Amino acid sequence: MRIDKLALQFFKNPEQFSKAMELLYESAQTLEQYPDFPDYEMHFLSGVISDEYPNYLFEKSENFRWKISEEFEKLEEEIKYLREVLLKI
Question: 0.90 exceeded by the pTM?
């Protein structure tokens, strides 16, 4: 599945997708700086999640990230299988 088609399943428009990706980036940066959950919660969840970045958008971005990971795992398995088949030829 192409990533752009996958994005359309999760987000209404490019602006929502863009904000969701900003949230994922902020989350990753905050986790890197504050690996303990109470600190992460204080600096990210309590500070960034707001009217501009509602909680549901963060949930969507996380679900999108997991789905992309699943799709890449499937692709890696298919590539491995195809290599094995080609080596037998």
Answer: no
Nearest CA-CA partner of 1 in 75, 59, 76, 65:
75
Mean pLDDT taken over the chain: 88
Tell me the three state secondary structure of residue 45.
Answer: helix
CA 10 to chain CA centroid, Å, is 11
d(CA 88, CA 82): 10
1: pLDDT confidence band, cut at 50, 70 and 90? Answer: low
Is pLDDT at 84 greater than 90 in this prediction? yes
CA–CA dist 23, 85 (Å, integer): 41
Of 19, 83, 39, give the one whose Cα is nearest residue 10: 19
